[in-house]
Amino acid sequence: MEITFSPSFLNSLRSFPSALQEEVLEKVEKFSNPKNHQILKVHKLKGRLRGCFSFSVNYHIRIVFEYVGKPKRAYLLAVGDHDVYN
Q1: Which of 6, 23, 57, 59 has its CA 20 to 30 A from that of 39?
Q2: Count of domains observed in the chain
Q3: Pairing mode, strands 2-5 and 73-80
Q4: What is the pLDDT of residues 40-76, one digit of tens each?
Q5: Is the pLDDT of residue 3 over 90?
Q6: Which of 64, 27, 24 is nearest to 46 (CA)?
Q7: Which residues contact 50 (CB under 8 A, 6 or more apart)?
Q8: Beta-carbon count within 10 A of 75 CB
Q9: DSSP string of 38-78?
Q10: CATH number at residue 78
């Protein structure tokens, strides 16, 4: 699966400590294989973020994304703690 990053995603990622940046990038790499989506807890979001999806990096950090185009590509919108949903 092709993955692209929004500018706000990249800005948030740069603000993390290097160990957390590496963890995020490892999970993004796993996410590129749809077979890993269940392990990463990929799920649809509701409310204001309806139409978007999310998956877990670790217990605290989430990535919000949307599917675009055909074939499906993932556009990563935001990364952060649960406040990323606000």
Answers
A1: 6
A2: 1
A3: parallel
A4: 999 999 999 999 999 999 999 999 999 998 888 999 9
A5: yes
A6: 64
A7: 44
A8: 16
A9: TTTT-EE--GGGTT-EEEESSSS-EEEEEEETTTTEEEEEE
A10: 3.30.2310.20
**Residue of 16, 34, 26 lying closest to 78 (CA atoms):** 16
How much is the pLDDT for 46? Answer: 95
Say what percent of the chain tops pLDDT 90.
90
State the residue range of the domain holding 30.
2-85
| Token pair in block for residue 2 | 């092709």
What is the pTM (predicted TM-score) of this model?
Answer: 0.94
The pairing of strands 62-68 and 73-80 is: antiparallel
